[in-house]
Amino acid sequence: MIKNEKNLDWIQLLRGVAALLVVLTHARYALLGTDSFPLAQQIFLPGAMGVDLFFIISGFIMCYSTATSDGSLS
């Protein structure tokens, strides 16, 4: 298998972590109405920043992977 020169595994991993943060932020609602919800709110609510991080990384990957493209289909 030929490894793509423009493959950025480390940044794809960071994008996956950002997506996981968003999932955990939404999962805190599973504890709604329990005594644990305030703690879950305090721990997982900052994970909402994962949305911003995900989109910033996605934009970087799009720009980086098409930097040498001339816009044609081939």
Overall pLDDT: 88
Helical region count?
A: 3
Low-confidence runs: none
Strand content range: under 5%
Largest sheet: none
User: Radius of gyration in whole Å, from Cα?
Assistant: 18 Å
N- and C-termini, Cα separation: 22 Å
Q: Tell me the overall shape.
A: rod-shaped
Count the beta strands.
0
* Helicity level: 55-70%
Secondary-structure-based class equals: mainly alpha
- Give the helices and strands as they follow along the chain: HHH
Structure report:
Helix 1 runs antiparallel to helix 3. With 74 residues, the protein is mainly alpha-helical. Helices cover 59% and strands 0% of the residues.
SSE map:
Layout: H1 9-27, H2 37-44, H3 49-65
Helix pairs in contact: 1-3
Provide tags for this entry.
74 residues, mainly alpha, 3 helices
Give a brief description.
With 74 residues, the protein is mainly α. The chain is built from three helices and no strands. The chain has a domain of 37 residues.
